[in-house]
Amino acid sequence: MSALLSSPVAAHSAVAEVTRRLEAAILSGELPLGSPLNEKQLSDSLGVSRGPLREALRGLEGRRLVERVPNVGARVVRLAEKDIREIYQLREVLEGAACRIATVAMPLAQRKALLESARAAVERIGSKANAYTFDGDLGFHSKVLKATGNQRLLDILNGDLFYLLRVFRLRSHTLPQRPLRAWQEHLAIAEAMVAGDGARAEELMRLHVRNAAQQAIDVAG
């Protein structure tokens, strides 16, 4: 067991720190999807009482990372292939639309900057296997979403879907060739945006999300 789940938590920030550690353990795969969360074991290993632990688990339930099962208790969410497909179908529609809207809303200078960052990432990852950063990948999508100026769209993608998508994104990028392929797809999207072709940008983003969905299914399976 790593330090995430085996070192005591400071009392003054117990709930926030327990939440952070459990979330990190879920995202990294240390706590696999579907694994039970034994309150006694976790409270002992983290050095906290059941109260802060239960509050942290409730918070993670709100993020859809933990679920309660009758007669079983808390466990890391377990998703069937159908669930994954439904999540990514929704993401495909929303992020595709966001890309089309952002192509019009984002100033040309910002679209060019997005293109240059994607081009640099492709070159960096192509020349060095460990050059991929998850935050960089997430940042590309975040910049496109923010450029739409559509708060409702942001709330949906940064709300219920956000944490589950982080699980799948982080794990699928451990697969060989996926990081480079993902950034090549980003590059094509950015090229369409710079050209002012919102329809093409939407089409490419939807394809990008479909590819990510298949990778998520492969990882979860």
Would you summarize the structure shown here?
With 221 residues, this protein is mostly helical. It contains 11 helices and 2 strands, in the order ααααββααααααα. The protein folds into 2 domains: 3-76, Winged helix-like DNA-binding domain superfamily/Winged helix DNA-binding domain (Arc Repressor Mutant, subunit A); 81-220, GntR ligand-binding domain-like (Four Helix Bundle (Hemerythrin (Met), subunit A), Up-down Bundle).
What does this protein structure show overall?
The protein is mainly alpha-helical and 221 residues long. It folds into two domains: 3-76, Orthogonal Bundle (Arc Repressor Mutant, subunit A), CATH 1.10.10.10; 81-220, Four Helix Bundle (Hemerythrin (Met), subunit A) (Up-down Bundle), CATH 1.20.120. It is 72% helix and 4% strand. It contains eleven helices and two strands; from the N terminus they run H-H-H-H-E-E-H-H-H-H-H-H-H. It has helices at 3-6, 14-28, 39-46, 50-62, 81-105, 108-127, 134-148, 151-157, 160-172, 178-194, 198-220, and strands at residues 66-69, 73-76. Strands 1-2 form a two-stranded antiparallel ribbon. Helix 9 (160-172) crosses helix 11 (198-220). The longest helix has 25 residues, at 81-105. The protein is elongated and about 55 Å long. The mean pLDDT is 86.
